[in-house]
Amino acid sequence: MTWSGVLLVTAVVWAVSLIRSVRLRALVYSLPLPMTLALVSSGHRVEGAQVVGVLGLNLFFVTVAFTYQRLRWPILLADGAGIAVYVALSAGLLAVGIPFGAALAGTLVLWLAAMLLLRRRAPARPAPADARPSVDARRDGLPPLLKLVVIFVGAVLTTLLGAVLRGMVVTFPYSGVLVAVEARRQLVEFSRHFARNSLALVGFLTAYHYFQDVSPTVALGAGWAAFAVVAAALHLPLPSVGPTGPGRRR
């Protein structure tokens, strides 16, 4: 990825570091900005492996959350474990080659299964605001300018690593490597929100795939439109049926 990609990754992570809402953090991170730059700068096509790569993004965060919170690894070591899992998955996908239709169907099935599982495991009622741990209020001690420098250096390093992944560079978690460090105190909650938002990334890649033979510009436009539609649908408030709902006697 070019220097513009490094600056974009830096900007995304910097924005995420300023956001206190975990839900909004996950939404900002899920924007397909690094994907767009990777597609423009590398010229790679979107095929089945890239769609499955979205699952790899989720697996990256699950690995980091598990090793950091359950195994008590240092966050940088947990980050390295997440990268290793993604690289191993990428090597397998590039070696096998998956038809796009099969990859899309499998990804959608796994996404739906994950959403059902997360819904079952979710608490029946959210904890009151004053009873929740005030992790968002905690600050990590780094001055803003120093934090920006650290983010920029990390973006350069992850960009160099992503250069060896060939077509899987499209879904490499460039900003995710740094976002995981920034959101380390809310990794489980962040992973849940990102897992939900990742369907919009599947929409982006699907639209790009079907329009990439027309032109890259048209494909990117279609991809962003699909992302916006799916993301909006995911965040629409669900209708609630009150005590005087349909079919209820007064």
Automatic annotation (TrEMBL):
Transmembrane segments: 48-68, 75-94, 100-118, 148-174, 218-238
Domain of life per record: Bacteria
Statement: the UniProt record of this protein carries the keyword Transmembrane helix: yes
Keyword Membrane: yes
Keywords of this entry: Membrane, Transmembrane, Transmembrane helix
Name of the protein: Uncharacterized protein
